[in-house]
Each structure stands twice: as structure tokens, then as C-alpha cells.
Amino acid sequence: MDKNKKQSTGLNYNKAVKQNKNFMYNDLRRSNCYNCDFTGSNFNFASFRGAHFKDCNFFECTFKSAEFIGSNLKKSKFRRAKLEDTVFEGVNLSGADFRDAKLKNVIFVATDLSNVKNLELNKSSIRIFEEHPIIEMSEELKNSINLALENEKIKKSRLLDNKDGDINTLSVMILLEKFNEKSLISGLKILCDRVDRDFCTLSYIVKAIQTYQKEGII
To answer: Sorted alphabetically, which SUPFAM superfamilies does this protein's record hold (predicted)?
Structure first.
């Protein structure tokens, strides 16, 4: 799991050119960038939680399993970018341009899309929620999530719960699309015992449980 280890690499650039850079797995939550050119850069598995990337150019960038939570992306350009399993939650996308971007399984939650340019909202490749989805969870699943949250690294990631301490149903919905409930419950219990490092995106949990499956312990 080393390659998914969180890197605290908040960026602070103003009118900088940072083309074809590798920001994979980076924790960009403290970033504040304005009018920067990131053309061709790799942001796969990166967290943009609370980050500001206003009026930036993401031409042909990749955002596989990237997470934009409470981010400010006003007037940024995602032209010909590739977004897969990407989440936008509570994001400012006013004036953002997605011309010729390739979207696959992209989720928008509590995000105003009325002023977004060149985004086809009726495509099956995107899902839009006004708020966190309501999902059915067994008591056993709830208990496994609450048990996992007793691990300080999992709690710190803020992926399985929200600021009010309630279970993050968006994350659970995504996990249940990757695993059946029995596997998820077992995986979370093992994760609770094994995780001893910081991480910043849900992809870490997904990859960990997939590893447990390959090891035959689930």
C-alpha cells in the first residue's frame, strides 16, 4: 500500500506554469493556486479537500478517483481532461469549462452546476445529488463503520463520517458499488486493525479491501 501513502503537498502558486507534473496520490487540501497552467498533469487519486484552484488550466489532465470536497474551482478549465470515479462535493464550479472532457462515473453532490460550461448533465456517465444519498444499511454494517472510525487514521481521513459525526452515506454508497456488504464489513474490520498511516481519498480503502480479497482473508 506504500504507493497510496498520503503526501502532504499543498500547492501555492500564482500564474505558474506546471505542465506534465505528477501529483498522483497527493493531499492537496491546503492548496491555493490562481491562474496556473497544469496542462497534461496527473492528479489521479489526489485529494482537493478545501483547496482553491481558481482560473486554472487543467487541459488534458487526469483525475482518476480524485476527490474535490469543498473546493473552489471557479473559472477553471477541464478541457479534454479525463475524469473517472471522481467526486465533486460542495464545489464552486462557477464558470468552469468541461469542453471535450471525458467523464466516467463522475458524481456531483451539493454542487451548483447552473453556470458550468460544456457539461452534458443528461449523460449516464455522471450522477447528480442535491445532498448525500439516503441508503439502507444493516446494523452490522453500521457497527463495522463505527468500529473503523475508532482507528485515528481512518477518523482523521474524514471519509467515513462527516463533521457532525454521522456516517458518510456517499462514501458507503460508493464502497457498496465496489464490494458486497459481507466483504465490506469484513474489510473494514481488517482495515481498522491494520491502518497505521495517514491517507486522504476513498481509493485507499478500496485498494486495501481489494488487497485483502486477493490475500484470501475476506
So the answer is: Pentapeptide repeat-like
Reported in sequence order, the residue ranges of 15-78 that DSSP labels E, i.e. its strands, are 26-27, 32-34, 52-54, 67-69
> Beta strands of 12-144 (E only): which ranges?
12-14, 26-27, 32-34, 52-54, 67-69, 82-84, 87-89, 102-104, 106-109, 126-129
**In the chain, what are the helix, strand and coil shares in percent, each to the nearest 5?**
25, 20, 50
pLDDT at 163: 85
- Quickly state the pLDDT bin for 109 (edges 50, 70, 90): very high
Return d(Cα 172, Cα 36) in angstroms, integer. 34
Phi, psi dihedrals of residue 178, rounded to the nearest 5°: -95, -30
The helices-and-strands tally (H runs, E runs) of the chain is 5, 11
What mean pLDDT do residues 72-100 have?
Answer: 98
Tell me phi and psi for residue 213, to 5 degrees.
-65, -45
Q: Which domains does the chain have, with CATH numbers?
A: 1-131 (2.160.20.80), 139-215 (no CATH)
pLDDT in tens, 115-124: 999 999 888 8
The three-state secondary structure class of 194 is helix
Q: Which three cell numbers stand for residue 85?
A: 470515479
